[in-house]
Amino acid sequence: MTWEIAKQAIDYVLNNEQEFREESVTWDFIGGEPFLEIDLIDKICDYIKTEMYRRNHHWFNSYRFSFSTNGINYHTEKVQNFIKKNQEHLSIGITIDGTKKKHDLNRIYKGKDGKGSYDDVVKNIPLYLKQFKNAGTKVTISSPDIPYIIESVLHLYKLGIKDIHINCVFEDVWKDGDDILFEEQLLSLADVIICKGYYKNHNCSFFLETIGKPLNPKTQNTTWCGAGQMLAIDATGNFYPCMRFAGYSLRSKKPIIIGNIYDGIDKNKLRPFLTLDRITQSPKECIDCEVASGCAWCQGENYDAAETNTIYQRATAICKMHKARVRANNYYWNKLYRKLELEGEREEFEKNKCEVKPEIC
Amino acid sequence: MLQYLIILLDKESVSFCSTPPKGERGGGLMPLETLRQGIRFGMMENLMIQYVYPDKELSKEYAEVIESIDHSKIKSLPQSLLKEGRMDADVWVTESIKDIKAEVPVVWRTDKQNLFNSEADIVCALENVPRLNVVLTDVETFTDEDFEKYKQLLSALAKHIEKLYVEGKAPQLNLLTDRMMLQKMNNCGAGDTTITLAPNGKFYVCPAFFYEDESDSIGDLENGLDIKNKQLYKLEYAPICRHCDAYQCKRCIWLNRKTTLEVNTPSHEQCVLAHLERNASRELLNNIRKHGTFLPEQEDIKEIDYLDPFDKRDTWQ
Amino acid sequence: MAMTKKTVGQVTPEERAEIQTLFERRNGLNELAKILTADNAELYEKLVKDMGETGRKFQNWWDRMAEKYKWESAEGGNWEINFDTCEILLVLA
Asked: What kind and span of H or E run contains B269?
């Protein structure tokens, strides 16, 4: 993205305050790797701050800059200066996939004879945790990652990361038997978390008390995904309801472009996103599902996998993985509460337990 | 449930709704065998057939096959016949209503500018045709200023219609009189109650889907219908429309997809136009009732404070 | 000596919203001050004035609340607010 495009995008958003009435804003910088462009990002953030203030924009009282980074350049002088300058308004997530072996399977430097990036990332973790005390990380599980779930979560705990947001990909990548392997991993992980007492001050979003219940079709009818409630802007200045609808994110469908920095937002193209509900897009098996709560979807994947060009056909590739998760989750809470009851600590635990919110795309 | 089969007899068949005008479609008569198979399909599926004609004369052979099943004919109205009012058609389609006279319902395709300048012609037509269906061909271009002009036109037409009712006549203008009579949605129905058979032997959601992209079919005569995500053409699967009581709205499926990219979601412009019509119908119904009993079984049309139901989505349950 | 925190009271959600907005604004002004220079005279002047005014409103909130709720205090200690729970904490170094 050039500075000119970035500036025009910011001007568009700030010029149209009446169209963006949300109380707060997150200016989210996502990949490639944002910290490779730290000079541009620094200039963009300075412009945003100055312009919000100059215009008396209501967001000046409530904004954040958010980054998803691979963490390799985290320690560099430029990035550190940027962090110091914006410390109170930053939300930074460093992605580590787990152990060195697992991380280096997928995260390899270009042209460095297949060298993985784990060592360069992990050395920055202490600094990261010092600067962001409650920092968490996001882990995504695909079929080949299943055997590494336990060791990856425990490794991240060992590194000092206490809050792990972890979820299965929504794409149809799952092989026969993946759900059983997944369930076994989660059952063993549950045992370790409970036996070693991690449940007291660590989180792993696989285990949530709220998941695995039926959902009322009338009172629990909201859609899951936030597509359309955010504005995503690509390097050329096109607008999308989420980056998953950009051409480079889609396998088999045309991008859904809802406007651009020159002409503004085509509000008609946002209407389907803002009127989506759970029931209208779900097949009967999902509506009748007895363990429906917590079963997530990605609107972009729904669109990409749909038989027609619609966002109203829910993809169900994740179904068997969700059901396996629910079984392991039930086991986790039953085992944990029995232990706490036997030890007379249940009441205290319930009073103090950390709240983990479901991961929303 | 499917009820109607539209058969486009030619690639240059007349446009009778929001479908783009013939333009450069090029000719192409439906092969006789395809027509026979289409009729057979309609019979087997128990569908009412509507033939859409090209301007050109069809041969005797075609006429014979066409007459082999009960049907309606949709034809364009040649200028030369405007004042005569007689022709072999069940629905006439015209681009001009000046001095029109007809014994069958007339579909008038017009753009907004022409419509805004045609109050007198519409009033005249209402006395000379049993029903006038106005089809706007540029709905998606309406601005706030156009909405205001539309509102004023509807208000003026409603006064004329009220007068005609008082005189004991019963003119029909889709924009104003339909809503007074309806108790539930009565919309386009493409993909749900109606499908289209094109000259190439393939089925389409409606003629516009065929004209826009011939590869966008929903089956063919050889293999039958294959409507993917069929439920999305139904009212219950349309989040905005299922909360709406502008029952006369065209709810054009093709325009929905063109403007919002989804067949089940209307544009802002479509919703506002339908609500201006709804509100003008409400006023008309109330005013006619001041002269005496009128449609006593019909409920009042409620007063509402919005023109686009989308703006009320936070109140939906 | 380790820092200790003790809950000494609670404010209403409306009162919490008031101080949270001032807190966010103060942070925003502080970070803006790192990049604005006197060259941008108009904005710089506005910022300086605003920082003073926001600081005053901030202090005024604590004074008003302390007067209203009469929280426990201690020498060398200070109060903190938990924005999630509306609780007031007494922090002792």
From this structure: helix B268-289
